[in-house]
Amino acid sequence: MVNIxxxxxxxxxxxxxxxxxxxxxxxxMEKRVLAVKEKLGKRLFIPAHHYQKDEVVKFADATGDxxxxxxxxxxxKEAEVIVFCGVHFMAETADMLTKDAQKVLLPDMRAGxxxxxxxxIQQTERCWEVLMDTFGDTMIPxxxxxxxxxxxxxxxxxxxxxxxxxxxxxxIEWALTQKERILFLPDQHLGRNVSFELGIPLxxxxxxxxxxxxxxxxGDIQDAQIILWKGHCSVHENFTVEHVKQIRExxxxxxxxxxxxxxFETVAASDYAGSxxxxxxTIEEAPAGSKWAIGTEMNLVQRLIHEHPDKEIVSLNPHLxxxxxxxxxxxxxxxxxxxxxxxxxxxxxIKVDEKTTNDAILALNRMLERA
Length: 371
Known about the structure:
Elements: H1 4-7, H2 19-22, H3 26-40, E1 44-45, E2 47-49, H4 54-57, E3 62-64, H5 66-75, E4 81-83, H6 88-97, E5 103-105, H7 121-135, E6 139-144, H8 149-157, E7 161-163, H9 168-178, E8 181-185, H10 188-197, E9 205-209, E10 214-216, E11 226-229, H11 241-250, E12 255-258, H12 264-269, E13 272-273, H13 276-285, E14 291-295, H14 298-307, E15 312-315, H15 331-342, H16 354-368
Parallel strand pairs: 1-4, 2-3, 4-5, 6-7, 6-8, 8-11, 9-11, 12-13, 12-14, 14-15
Antiparallel strand pairs: 9-10
Helix pairs in contact: 3-15, 5-6, 8-16
């Protein structure tokens, strides 16, 4: 059953893009995008996540991962409108961190996140009741930023914080100074990989299944220190140990570099694992002639291939498609969003309610203070 309050967490109306935008030439669209950017100047800010299409990234004022873009949006006090080229939870975060007068637009409302959708507020509240009954007041929640505003607010109210793939290690270390145990949601792989890196054995990690409403754990549940929500990124879960083995055969001298949202076994079999920013930096600093197999979203891998012709770079899974929701925002939707500013229609404005914002800000600030 879908929680009605969560449905209303953002006041948005989904509108289908007018057909004539789809019939414009690329040259015409690019010309009109540049015209709007020039006209609005600093009144407009376009942040774009690294996983976005090149046709969108080329017009971005800044590119980055979730943490970087959250910080940039918070710091930007001049922009009247932020056109966020990413996914829904990122636009929510931008709205919560910016001033009330600043508007945040998401060019395509279909740009969601399957990982964020794997934890809704009703499931989380039911889980928390069981955790309190099982462990008492020994729990603190952490949520990956790839989660809804309602989940962030839930975490904020209970003394927890948000995390990103680039600071998850620091945030888990901090959380364990606050309480004995952590509920980590919604990505079990990130939570497991980072906790293991910190020296927490797998035997002390339990999985909470929100569908069966039960723990998945062999042994005495009281021995569990990390409770992992059973969620995953549909892109990164498709990088497997078999892919690593195949690369070892096909490119024996290649370094395997993966994102920590990949399964534990894949990360363990790889040479390096780290956030999107870590992946980019590693490739930038790699010597010419080096070989790399990268396990992350295809748009980013293709961009790295293009930007570093002096290195041999391939996808760890060559048959993987780009993230479907990250790919929703294209040039026609970007233009449509920008031109809605000129007409003051502000298509697909993301607006999180005040109560949710206030509670979620607690979780976000606990992260940003330690960034």
